[in-house]
Amino acid sequence: MDLLSSVITLPMAVAAAGAAHYLGAKAVKAVLWSVSPLSTGEPQAFTYERDVWRTAEPATMQVLIAVLASGVLVWFGAVIAQSWVSGLGVLAWIGALLFDLQRWERVAVSANNLWFQRGYWQKVHRVAYENIRDAHIEEKDAGGFTLRRGRHNRVCRLQVRMKDKRIVALPKTDAYAGLGDVEEVANQLRQRLRHLEDREAVKRSEAAAHEAAKRAAETPTGGDDELHRALRKLRAGALAPNVPPAVKLRRES
User: Fold this and answer.
1) In order of start, what are the domains of the chain with their CATH numbers?
2) Can you tell me the distance from the alpha carbon of 38 to that of 200, in angstroms, rounded to the nearest whole number?
3) What pLDDT shows up at residue 220?
4) 3-state class (DSSP) for residue 149
5) Binning pLDDT at 50, 70 and 90, where does residue 231 land?
6) Taking the model in full, what pTM does it have?
7) What is the CB neighbour count within 10 angstroms for residue 82?
8) Considering the chain, what is the average pLDDT of its residues?
9) Which of 17, 65, 155, 203 could form a disulfide with 172 if both were Cys (CB 3.0 to 4.6 A apart)?
């Protein structure tokens, strides 16, 4: 292979390795979402994952370097006419795909739990809604590098505050492409938290009315009036519990 051909085919080989990884990893992850969902015992409602090609994070940049390096190795094997070197490049590409799965981070919400995983072969973490106080979306500029936007990147993620005041920082993803998915997860989580608050408010109203009715029954005089007032309070509390106001979401383009 002459010098001109070598120079021309290098970017073609690197681009082919990148395109093959983009399509291959997307297909593999779609299959894994289907056969190995995060939630167990209940269906997933909404999900989001870290986008390797768009998220400006050191872990994702390392995956892309491995992918592009495999393309260079295949090209070098063709230049020196050594098929075994090109074969090593193919093996390196497969290794880069496995490396991608090892760094794969994803989040899901179901009816009663929040789930997340950092690395496909790592532990799946489950957080019950009863232990969550509130949640919000964090969005900020990222200092890393991506092929699409260079150094002008933004990342976002869902942050969850527990009732014991601990903060659970969930995986980051590209804000330009992934913010919609993160907001869907956040909306579902907030909706479930409001439902829990509604039920707790009804229970508190019922308990207060029951206690008032009990006191009225034990009162020598005026017991019937107290009882009627307690029953009216019970019905009013069940129909219109004292619930916290809905959270207004902030959406940024």
Assistant:
1) 3-203 (2.30.29.30)
2) 28
3) 58
4) coil
5) low
6) 0.78
7) 12
8) 85
9) 155
Cα torsion through 211, 217, 220, 226, rounded to 10: 70
Angle at CA of residue 43, ends 38 and 46, nearest 5°: 70
Instruction: Please give the order of strands across the beta sheet that includes 113-118.
Output: 46-49, 105-109, 113-118, 124-128
Q: Residue 148: what pLDDT?
A: 84
The dihedral built from the CA positions of residue 89, 146, 54 and 38, taken in this order, carries a sign that is positive
Class of residue 70 by CB neighbours under 10 A (exposed 0-12, middle 13-18, buried 19+): buried
Q: Among residues 161, 110, 107, 166, which one has the least CA distance to residue 136?
A: 161
What DSSP string describes 61-94?
Answer: HHHHHHHHHHHHHHHHHHHTT-HHHHHHHHHHHH
- Name 140's bridge partners: 155
Structure tokens at 107: 């989040």
Closest to 137 in 3D by CA, of 67, 48, 65: 48
Report pLDDT digits (tens) over 34-70. Answer: 999 999 989 999 999 999 999 999 999 999 999 999 9
Closest CA to 239 of 206, 194, 196: 206
Do 60 and 103 form a contact (C-beta atoms < 8 A)? yes
